[in-house]
Protein backbone atom coordinates (compact mmCIF):
# COMPACT_ATOMS: atom_id res chain seq x y z
CA UNK A 1 0.00 0.00 0.00
CA UNK A 2 1.24 3.47 -0.82
CA UNK A 3 0.51 6.89 0.50
CA UNK A 4 0.86 10.28 -1.17
CA UNK A 5 3.40 12.83 0.00
CA UNK A 6 4.04 16.32 -1.28
CA UNK A 7 7.28 16.11 -3.20
CA UNK A 8 8.75 17.97 -6.15
CA UNK A 9 9.70 16.58 -9.47
CA UNK A 10 13.06 17.72 -10.67
CA UNK A 11 15.15 17.37 -13.77
CA UNK A 12 15.47 13.64 -13.36
CA UNK A 13 11.89 12.63 -12.86
CA UNK A 14 11.77 12.05 -16.60
CA UNK A 15 13.77 8.83 -16.41
CA UNK A 16 10.98 7.06 -14.60
CA UNK A 17 7.64 6.04 -15.96
CA UNK A 18 5.58 9.03 -14.95
CA UNK A 19 2.24 7.44 -15.77
CA UNK A 20 2.90 4.46 -13.52
CA UNK A 21 4.72 6.28 -10.73
CA UNK A 22 1.91 8.79 -10.36
CA UNK A 23 -0.61 6.03 -9.68
CA UNK A 24 1.53 3.66 -7.62
CA UNK A 25 4.90 2.00 -7.23
CA UNK A 26 6.13 -0.72 -9.56
CA UNK A 27 7.57 -4.04 -8.47
CA UNK A 28 11.30 -4.02 -7.68
CA UNK A 29 13.53 -4.96 -10.65
CA UNK A 30 15.31 -7.70 -8.75
CA UNK A 31 17.70 -8.81 -11.50
CA UNK A 32 18.93 -5.25 -12.00
CA UNK A 33 19.48 -4.82 -8.27
CA UNK A 34 21.46 -8.07 -8.04
CA UNK A 35 23.57 -7.05 -11.05
CA UNK A 36 24.31 -3.64 -9.54
CA UNK A 37 25.28 -5.16 -6.21
CA UNK A 38 27.59 -7.62 -7.98
CA UNK A 39 29.32 -4.77 -9.85
CA UNK A 40 29.64 -2.86 -6.59
CA UNK A 41 31.18 -5.86 -4.84
CA UNK A 42 33.76 -6.38 -7.61
CA UNK A 43 34.66 -2.70 -7.65
CA UNK A 44 34.89 -2.60 -3.87
CA UNK A 45 37.23 -5.61 -3.77
CA UNK A 46 39.42 -4.04 -6.44
CA UNK A 47 39.61 -0.73 -4.58
CA UNK A 48 40.44 -2.41 -1.28
CA UNK A 49 43.13 -4.67 -2.72
CA UNK A 50 44.72 -2.28 -5.22
CA UNK A 51 44.45 1.06 -3.41
CA UNK A 52 43.57 1.98 0.14
CA UNK A 53 40.62 2.26 2.47
CA UNK A 54 39.95 5.83 1.40
CA UNK A 55 38.78 4.89 -2.09
CA UNK A 56 36.62 2.02 -0.84
CA UNK A 57 34.93 4.26 1.73
CA UNK A 58 34.37 6.95 -0.89
CA UNK A 59 32.62 4.43 -3.12
CA UNK A 60 30.21 3.65 -0.29
CA UNK A 61 29.62 7.37 0.30
CA UNK A 62 29.00 7.84 -3.43
CA UNK A 63 26.46 5.00 -3.42
CA UNK A 64 24.60 6.65 -0.55
CA UNK A 65 24.69 10.03 -2.31
CA UNK A 66 23.21 8.60 -5.50
CA UNK A 67 20.64 6.59 -3.58
CA UNK A 68 19.54 9.68 -1.66
CA UNK A 69 19.46 11.97 -4.69
CA UNK A 70 17.25 9.61 -6.66
CA UNK A 71 14.87 8.70 -3.85
CA UNK A 72 14.20 12.33 -2.99
CA UNK A 73 14.37 13.55 -6.60
CA UNK A 74 16.63 16.13 -4.99
CA UNK A 75 17.55 18.62 -7.68
CA UNK A 76 19.25 21.95 -8.14
CA UNK A 77 18.21 22.59 -11.75
CA UNK A 78 14.48 22.22 -11.13
CA UNK A 79 14.67 24.14 -7.85
CA UNK A 80 16.12 27.17 -9.63
CA UNK A 81 13.71 26.77 -12.56
CA UNK A 82 10.58 26.59 -10.40
CA UNK A 83 11.63 29.64 -8.42
CA UNK A 84 12.45 31.62 -11.57
CA UNK A 85 9.39 30.59 -13.57
CA UNK A 86 6.49 30.43 -11.12
CA UNK A 87 7.94 31.53 -7.80
CA UNK A 88 7.80 28.18 -6.01
CA UNK A 89 10.65 28.10 -3.49
CA UNK A 90 10.01 24.82 -1.67
CA UNK A 91 13.06 23.12 -3.16
CA UNK A 92 15.26 26.17 -2.63
CA UNK A 93 14.28 26.12 1.04
CA UNK A 94 15.43 22.52 1.18
CA UNK A 95 18.77 23.79 -0.15
CA UNK A 96 18.92 26.24 2.73
CA UNK A 97 18.28 23.44 5.23
CA UNK A 98 20.97 21.33 3.59
CA UNK A 99 23.44 24.20 3.75
CA UNK A 100 22.54 25.00 7.36
CA UNK A 101 23.28 21.43 8.40
CA UNK A 102 26.42 21.41 6.26
CA UNK A 103 27.97 24.56 7.77
CA UNK A 104 27.14 23.25 11.24
CA UNK A 105 29.10 20.08 10.49
CA UNK A 106 31.85 21.72 8.43
CA UNK A 107 32.69 24.41 11.01
CA UNK A 108 34.27 22.12 13.64
CA UNK A 109 35.79 19.83 10.99
CA UNK A 110 37.59 22.73 9.31
CA UNK A 111 38.41 24.54 12.54
CA UNK A 112 40.02 21.54 14.21
CA UNK A 113 41.19 19.61 11.15
CA UNK A 114 39.13 16.50 11.92
CA UNK A 115 39.75 13.63 9.49
CA UNK A 116 39.61 9.84 9.40
CA UNK A 117 42.95 9.25 7.71
CA UNK A 118 45.07 12.16 8.99
CA UNK A 119 45.16 13.68 5.51
CA UNK A 120 44.36 17.20 6.65
CA UNK A 121 41.18 19.00 5.62
CA UNK A 122 40.46 22.09 3.55
CA UNK A 123 37.27 23.55 2.14
CA UNK A 124 36.49 24.86 -1.30
CA UNK A 125 37.44 28.55 -1.20
CA UNK A 126 38.01 30.07 -4.65
CA UNK A 127 38.88 33.46 -6.20
CA UNK A 128 36.20 35.95 -7.22
CA UNK A 129 36.56 37.34 -10.71
CA UNK A 130 35.47 37.31 -14.34
CA UNK A 131 36.08 33.58 -14.56
CA UNK A 132 33.60 32.89 -11.77
CA UNK A 133 30.97 35.27 -13.12
CA UNK A 134 31.09 33.96 -16.69
CA UNK A 135 31.36 30.32 -15.66
CA UNK A 136 28.48 30.32 -13.18
CA UNK A 137 26.19 32.17 -15.60
CA UNK A 138 27.04 29.66 -18.34
CA UNK A 139 26.39 26.79 -15.98
CA UNK A 140 22.98 28.22 -15.07
CA UNK A 141 21.96 28.28 -18.73
CA UNK A 142 23.49 24.89 -19.40
CA UNK A 143 21.76 23.02 -16.60
CA UNK A 144 18.35 24.25 -17.77
CA UNK A 145 19.03 23.12 -21.33
CA UNK A 146 20.88 19.95 -20.45
CA UNK A 147 18.11 18.77 -18.13
CA UNK A 148 20.20 18.46 -15.00
CA UNK A 149 23.09 19.83 -13.02
CA UNK A 150 26.30 17.92 -12.29
CA UNK A 151 24.83 15.66 -9.62
CA UNK A 152 21.53 15.53 -11.53
CA UNK A 153 23.28 14.33 -14.67
CA UNK A 154 24.94 11.48 -12.78
CA UNK A 155 21.84 10.24 -11.04
CA UNK A 156 19.69 10.69 -14.15
CA UNK A 157 22.12 8.43 -15.99
CA UNK A 158 21.81 5.95 -13.15
CA UNK A 159 18.03 6.22 -13.35
CA UNK A 160 17.96 5.43 -17.07
CA UNK A 161 17.18 8.77 -18.66
CA UNK A 162 18.68 8.18 -22.08
CA UNK A 163 19.16 11.80 -23.11
CA UNK A 164 21.30 12.40 -20.03
CA UNK A 165 23.95 10.12 -21.48
CA UNK A 166 24.23 12.74 -24.24
CA UNK A 167 24.44 15.51 -21.63
CA UNK A 168 27.16 13.62 -19.77
CA UNK A 169 29.28 13.07 -22.89
CA UNK A 170 29.23 16.74 -23.82
CA UNK A 171 29.60 17.75 -20.18
CA UNK A 172 32.92 15.90 -20.32
CA UNK A 173 33.85 17.57 -23.62
CA UNK A 174 33.04 21.02 -22.22
CA UNK A 175 35.01 20.35 -19.03
CA UNK A 176 38.02 19.26 -21.08
CA UNK A 177 37.98 22.37 -23.25
CA UNK A 178 37.47 24.44 -20.11
CA UNK A 179 40.54 22.84 -18.54
CA UNK A 180 42.56 23.75 -21.62
CA UNK A 181 41.36 27.38 -21.53
CA UNK A 182 41.40 27.84 -17.75
CA UNK A 183 44.88 29.45 -17.50
CA UNK A 184 43.67 32.26 -19.76
CA UNK A 185 40.64 32.94 -17.57
CA UNK A 186 42.53 32.77 -14.29
CA UNK A 187 45.75 34.53 -15.34
CA UNK A 188 44.60 37.07 -17.93
CA UNK A 189 41.19 38.07 -16.56
CA UNK A 190 40.73 40.28 -13.45
CA UNK A 191 40.10 38.50 -10.15
CA UNK A 192 40.17 39.13 -6.42
CA UNK A 193 41.68 36.81 -3.86
CA UNK A 194 39.45 34.13 -2.30
CA UNK A 195 37.24 35.34 0.54
CA UNK A 196 36.44 33.03 3.45
CA UNK A 197 33.77 34.26 5.85
CA UNK A 198 35.65 32.40 8.59
CA UNK A 199 39.28 33.27 7.90
CA UNK A 200 39.57 36.28 5.58
CA UNK A 201 37.02 38.38 7.47
CA UNK A 202 38.36 37.52 10.91
CA UNK A 203 34.96 36.32 12.17
CA UNK A 204 36.28 32.83 12.85
CA UNK A 205 34.23 29.72 12.26
CA UNK A 206 31.77 30.56 15.02
CA UNK A 207 31.03 33.99 13.59
CA UNK A 208 30.94 32.68 10.02
CA UNK A 209 28.46 30.01 11.11
CA UNK A 210 26.11 32.60 12.61
CA UNK A 211 26.33 34.80 9.50
CA UNK A 212 25.65 31.78 7.28
CA UNK A 213 22.60 30.67 9.28
CA UNK A 214 21.21 34.21 9.15
CA UNK A 215 21.69 34.34 5.37
CA UNK A 216 19.98 30.97 4.87
CA UNK A 217 17.05 32.14 6.98
CA UNK A 218 16.83 35.37 4.98
CA UNK A 219 16.83 33.52 1.67
CA UNK A 220 14.16 31.09 2.89
CA UNK A 221 12.01 34.03 4.01
CA UNK A 222 12.44 35.73 0.62
CA UNK A 223 11.21 32.61 -1.17
CA UNK A 224 8.09 32.59 1.02
CA UNK A 225 7.44 36.23 0.16
CA UNK A 226 7.85 35.46 -3.54
CA UNK A 227 5.45 32.51 -3.26
CA UNK A 228 2.76 34.59 -1.63
CA UNK A 229 3.18 37.46 -4.08
CA UNK A 230 3.11 35.24 -7.17
CA UNK A 231 0.59 32.75 -5.76
CA UNK A 232 2.92 29.94 -6.71
CA UNK A 233 1.47 26.47 -7.35
CA UNK A 234 2.26 23.70 -4.93
CA UNK A 235 4.20 20.57 -5.68
CA UNK A 236 2.22 17.53 -6.70
CA UNK A 237 2.28 14.39 -4.54
CA UNK A 238 4.56 11.50 -5.45
CA UNK A 239 3.81 7.96 -4.22
CA UNK A 240 5.76 6.41 -1.42
CA UNK A 241 5.69 3.39 0.85
CA UNK A 242 4.73 3.70 4.51
CA UNK A 243 6.92 3.15 7.53
CA UNK A 244 10.37 1.63 7.23
CA UNK A 245 9.69 0.45 3.66
CA UNK A 246 9.92 4.08 2.60
CA UNK A 247 13.69 3.85 3.04
CA UNK A 248 13.89 1.51 0.07
CA UNK A 249 10.94 2.39 -2.14
CA UNK A 250 9.10 5.55 -3.06
CA UNK A 251 9.70 9.20 -2.45
CA UNK A 252 11.70 10.65 0.44
CA UNK A 253 10.82 14.05 1.94
CA UNK A 254 13.09 16.81 0.72
CA UNK A 255 13.99 17.85 4.26
CA UNK A 256 15.21 14.33 5.06
CA UNK A 257 17.35 14.19 1.92
CA UNK A 258 18.78 17.63 2.69
CA UNK A 259 20.01 16.43 6.07
CA UNK A 260 21.41 13.19 4.67
CA UNK A 261 23.26 14.93 1.83
CA UNK A 262 24.82 17.42 4.24
CA UNK A 263 25.97 14.58 6.48
CA UNK A 264 27.44 12.64 3.57
CA UNK A 265 29.29 15.74 2.37
CA UNK A 266 30.80 16.11 5.83
CA UNK A 267 31.85 12.43 5.74
CA UNK A 268 33.46 13.08 2.36
CA UNK A 269 35.38 16.01 3.82
CA UNK A 270 36.70 13.91 6.70
CA UNK A 271 37.52 10.97 4.41
CA UNK A 272 39.47 12.58 1.59
CA UNK A 273 40.28 15.96 3.10
CA UNK A 274 38.01 18.05 0.86
CA UNK A 275 34.24 18.30 0.21
CA UNK A 276 32.18 16.45 -2.36
CA UNK A 277 32.93 17.40 -5.96
CA UNK A 278 31.87 16.13 -9.38
CA UNK A 279 33.22 17.95 -12.41
CA UNK A 280 36.98 17.78 -11.89
CA UNK A 281 36.64 14.10 -12.77
CA UNK A 282 34.99 15.03 -16.06
CA UNK A 283 38.00 17.12 -17.00
CA UNK A 284 40.25 14.20 -16.11
CA UNK A 285 38.26 11.68 -18.15
CA UNK A 286 38.14 13.96 -21.17
CA UNK A 287 41.81 14.85 -20.93
CA UNK A 288 42.79 11.17 -20.85
CA UNK A 289 40.74 10.55 -24.00
CA UNK A 290 42.27 13.62 -25.65
CA UNK A 291 45.72 12.31 -24.76
CA UNK A 292 44.96 8.97 -26.41
CA UNK A 293 43.70 10.74 -29.53
CA UNK A 294 46.97 12.63 -29.82
CA UNK A 295 46.58 15.96 -28.05
CA UNK A 296 49.55 17.13 -25.98
CA UNK A 297 47.49 17.29 -22.81
CA UNK A 298 50.52 17.18 -20.53
CA UNK A 299 51.55 20.62 -21.79
CA UNK A 300 48.29 22.27 -20.73
CA UNK A 301 48.62 24.67 -17.83
CA UNK A 302 45.74 22.89 -16.06
CA UNK A 303 47.82 19.70 -15.76
CA UNK A 304 51.01 21.23 -14.43
CA UNK A 305 52.39 20.68 -10.94
CA UNK A 306 50.81 18.17 -8.58
CA UNK A 307 47.89 17.44 -10.91
CA UNK A 308 50.20 16.08 -13.63
CA UNK A 309 50.41 12.68 -11.94
CA UNK A 310 46.66 12.15 -12.41
CA UNK A 311 47.10 11.91 -16.18
CA UNK A 312 49.41 8.92 -15.82
CA UNK A 313 47.54 7.11 -13.05
CA UNK A 314 44.38 5.00 -13.23
CA UNK A 315 41.16 6.99 -12.97
CA UNK A 316 40.32 4.91 -9.90
CA UNK A 317 43.07 6.69 -8.01
CA UNK A 318 41.01 9.85 -8.44
CA UNK A 319 38.67 10.22 -5.47
CA UNK A 320 36.13 12.31 -7.40
CA UNK A 321 35.89 9.61 -10.06
CA UNK A 322 35.16 6.99 -7.42
CA UNK A 323 32.46 9.21 -5.90
CA UNK A 324 30.90 9.73 -9.33
CA UNK A 325 30.81 6.01 -10.06
CA UNK A 326 29.18 5.51 -6.67
CA UNK A 327 26.49 8.12 -7.39
CA UNK A 328 25.57 6.46 -10.70
CA UNK A 329 25.39 2.98 -9.19
CA UNK A 330 23.49 4.21 -6.12
CA UNK A 331 20.89 5.94 -8.29
CA UNK A 332 20.61 2.81 -10.44
CA UNK A 333 19.90 0.68 -7.37
CA UNK A 334 17.35 3.19 -6.07
CA UNK A 335 15.52 3.32 -9.41
CA UNK A 336 15.48 -0.46 -9.73
CA UNK A 337 14.23 -0.84 -6.15
CA UNK A 338 11.24 1.30 -7.08
CA UNK A 339 10.77 -0.56 -10.36
CA UNK A 340 11.47 2.66 -12.22
CA UNK A 341 14.56 1.98 -14.31
CA UNK A 342 13.64 2.41 -17.96
CA UNK A 343 15.44 3.94 -20.91
CA UNK A 344 13.59 6.85 -22.46
CA UNK A 345 13.20 8.03 -26.03
CA UNK A 346 15.36 10.63 -27.69
CA UNK A 347 14.08 13.56 -29.75
CA UNK A 348 15.94 16.02 -31.92
CA UNK A 349 15.03 18.81 -29.54
CA UNK A 350 16.20 17.26 -26.31
CA UNK A 351 19.36 15.89 -27.92
CA UNK A 352 20.28 19.34 -29.26
CA UNK A 353 19.54 20.93 -25.91
CA UNK A 354 21.59 18.28 -24.12
CA UNK A 355 24.58 18.85 -26.37
CA UNK A 356 24.54 22.62 -25.84
CA UNK A 357 23.69 22.31 -22.17
CA UNK A 358 26.41 19.77 -21.51
CA UNK A 359 29.04 21.91 -23.23
CA UNK A 360 27.99 25.01 -21.29
CA UNK A 361 27.98 23.20 -17.96
CA UNK A 362 31.34 21.53 -18.52
CA UNK A 363 33.06 24.70 -19.65
CA UNK A 364 31.31 26.85 -17.05
CA UNK A 365 32.19 24.51 -14.19
CA UNK A 366 35.91 24.77 -14.95
CA UNK A 367 35.77 28.56 -15.14
CA UNK A 368 33.69 28.87 -11.96
CA UNK A 369 35.89 26.51 -9.89
CA UNK A 370 33.10 23.99 -9.62
CA UNK A 371 29.47 23.16 -10.28
CA UNK A 372 26.33 23.12 -8.17
CA UNK A 373 28.11 20.64 -5.88
CA UNK A 374 31.70 21.87 -5.73
CA UNK A 375 31.04 25.62 -5.95
CA UNK A 376 27.50 26.10 -4.64
CA UNK A 377 27.10 23.31 -2.05
CA UNK A 378 30.75 22.78 -1.18
CA UNK A 379 31.73 26.43 -1.48
CA UNK A 380 28.98 27.76 0.77
CA UNK A 381 29.49 24.91 3.24
CA UNK A 382 33.18 25.91 3.32
CA UNK A 383 32.19 29.53 4.13
CA UNK A 384 33.48 30.78 0.78
CA UNK A 385 31.96 33.93 -0.68
CA UNK A 386 32.36 32.54 -4.19
CA UNK A 387 29.67 29.92 -3.44
CA UNK A 388 27.03 32.61 -2.88
CA UNK A 389 28.08 34.46 -6.02
CA UNK A 390 27.89 31.21 -7.96
CA UNK A 391 24.29 30.70 -6.82
CA UNK A 392 23.24 34.22 -7.81
CA UNK A 393 24.83 34.00 -11.26
CA UNK A 394 23.47 30.49 -11.90
CA UNK A 395 19.99 31.75 -11.04
CA UNK A 396 20.56 34.58 -13.52
CA UNK A 397 21.46 32.05 -16.18
CA UNK A 398 18.28 30.16 -15.32
CA UNK A 399 16.13 33.22 -16.05
CA UNK A 400 17.69 33.51 -19.51
CA UNK A 401 17.32 29.80 -20.15
CA UNK A 402 13.55 30.02 -19.57
CA UNK A 403 13.35 31.84 -22.89
CA UNK A 404 15.61 29.31 -24.62
CA UNK A 405 13.99 26.06 -23.49
CA UNK A 406 10.90 26.36 -25.75
CA UNK A 407 13.20 26.63 -28.79
CA UNK A 408 14.14 22.99 -28.14
CA UNK A 409 10.65 21.82 -27.30
CA UNK A 410 11.36 21.85 -23.56
CA UNK A 411 8.61 22.89 -21.19
CA UNK A 412 8.59 25.85 -18.82
CA UNK A 413 6.28 25.71 -15.77
CA UNK A 414 3.38 28.17 -15.84
CA UNK A 415 1.73 29.83 -12.87
CA UNK A 416 -1.41 27.75 -13.38
CA UNK A 417 0.47 24.45 -13.40
CA UNK A 418 0.91 22.05 -10.53
CA UNK A 419 4.09 20.05 -10.31
CA UNK A 420 3.53 16.44 -11.19
Provide tags for this entry.
single chain, 420 residues, two-stranded antiparallel ribbon, two-stranded antiparallel sheet, 4 strands, globular, disordered N terminus, disordered C terminus, cell membrane, YeeE/YedE family protein
Written overview of the protein:
The chain has one domain (2-408). It has a two-stranded antiparallel ribbon with strand order 1-4. Strands 2-3 form a two-stranded antiparallel ribbon. 63% of the residues lie in helices and 3% in strands. It is mainly alpha-helical and 420 residues long.
User: Structural class of the helices, strands and pairings?
Assistant: mainly alpha
Instruction: Tell me the number of helical segments per DSSP (H or I, 4 or more residues long).
Output: 16
Domains (count):
1
The strand line-up of the biggest sheet is 1-4
List low-pLDDT spans. Answer: 1-23, 416-420
- Percent of residues in β-strands: under 5%
Overall residue-averaged pLDDT value: 90
Shape by Cα distribution: globular
Radius of gyration: 20 Å
E-strand count = 4
Oligomeric state as shown: single chain
Distance between the termini: 20 Å
Largest sheet data: 2 strands, antiparallel
Helical content (DSSP H or I, runs of 4+): 55-70%
| Series of secondary-structure elements, N-terminal to C-terminal | EHHHHHEHHHEHEHHHHHHH
